[in-house]
Amino acid sequence: LHFVDTKNKIKFFNNSMLGQLSGKLNLESKLRKAISNKEFKLHYQPQLECKTNKVVGVEALIRCQKFRECGISPEEFISLAEETGMILELGEWIIDAALKQLKIWHNKGYNNLLISINIAPQQFQQDDFALKIEQLLQKHQIEAKYLELEITERTVIKDVNYTVEVLNELKKLGVLVSIDDFGTGYSSLEYLNRFALDKLKIDKSFVHNNNNLKIVKTIIVMGKNLGLEVVAEGVETQQELEFLINNNCNYYQGYYFSKPKKAVEVEKYFEK
Ligand code: C2E
Ligand code: MG
Ligand code: MG
Ligand code: MG
User: Fold this and answer.
1) Which atom of ligand 1 lies closest to the CA of 203?
2) Of 130, 128, 129, 100, which Cα lies nearest the Cα of 115?
3) Rounded to whole angstroms, how far apart are CA atoms 81 and 28?
4) Ligand 1 and 79: CB distance under 6 A
5) Bridge partners of 2?
6) Would the CB of 183 count as within 6 Å of ligand 1?
7) Which helix (H) or strand (E) covers residue 224, if one does?
8) Which of 10, 101, 128, 168 has its Cα between 20 and 30 A from that of 93?
9) Phi, psi for residue 116 in degrees, rounded to 5
């Protein structure tokens, strides 16, 4: 089997490559359909202050029934959305839906609740990203200080000068920014000084692994020295939590307290 590509080069395909390609095309059209039919929902995972064990906020995490049935994880369909550019439309829906839910909670009296939203590199890189955020906050009548954007090292290293600019705009707006999965990427530590950041989220792979506890300790101390708050993700055991408390980590989230849940289910953890 072969085909001729746009540069008139003959390429050969074997059956397995063809299978992969058609699987991907199929998935891509499923994703496109899911986006236009709005077949997504958000789940929310509580974020707690280590010192008081109080819920201070939630992280919004996308879910899709259709993909779950085919065994496709959020990580997988998000990465396909990134590859195909569909993340821009999907990402905007996510921010809008999350802020809408946050407003409902604020109106119910959970006034100080914060929401964290994952932002893909292309979303962050689009023109007027900060303005888009400002407009969505305006639309939902939410103060900027209740919104936290989670970006990854992948996002910040794309164009460092541009990142500095956007982060400064976001800072001026008053939204919080955290580096998600901290420690797993390839960004330079020097950037932590240049970027207007608020928090570091220690990747769950460090939190879980006993061999990595020195790394966790070090990230907490470093974060504090740089004036950043530190969040540990993926906390699954009492022992992990105690370690974090003893080492003055600011916040944690993980299955130990709660998995990500539907809005109505997560509400029971909130305090007025
Ligand atoms: P992330 O932002 O680092 O989110 C943390 C992931 O760890 C979530 O997986 C969460 O369900 C899972 N998790 C939380 N606590 C624990 C724990 O105690 N143990 C373990 N093993 N896992 C835990 P999820 O929801 O499958 O999301 C995976 C990734 O997909 C996210 O990683 C994020 O990179 C991406 N993602 C999810 N939702 C969105 C979204 O709305 N927008 C964007 N751009 N990316 C998203
Ligand atoms: Mg996250
Ligand atoms: Mg993470
Ligand atoms: Mg992740």
Assistant:
1) 3
2) 100
3) 8
4) no
5) 12
6) no
7) helix 213-225
8) 168
9) -110, 135
DSSP β-bridge partners for residue 251: 49, 231
Strands 10-12 and 251-252, sheet pairing:
unpaired
CA–centroid distance, residue 181 to ligand 4 (Å): 6
Does 148 contact ligand 1 (Cβ within 6 A)?
A: no
ipTM of the complex: 0.98
Query: Comparing C-alpha atoms, which of 239, 261, 265, 263 is closest to residue 252?
Result: 239
pLDDT tens for the chain, 272 residues: list them.
555 555 555 666 666 776 676 777 789 999 999 999 999 999 999 999 999 999 999 999 999 999 999 899 999 999 999 999 999 999 999 999 999 999 999 999 999 999 999 999 999 999 999 999 999 999 999 999 999 999 999 999 989 999 999 999 999 999 999 999 999 998 888 899 999 999 999 999 999 888 899 999 999 999 999 999 999 999 999 999 999 999 999 999 999 999 999 999 999 999 87
- Residue 113 phi, psi dihedral angles, 5° rounding: -65, 140
pTM of the model: 0.93
Candidates 192, 251, 194; CA nearest to 57 is 251
Q: How many CA atoms lie within 13 A of 32 on its CB side?
A: 9
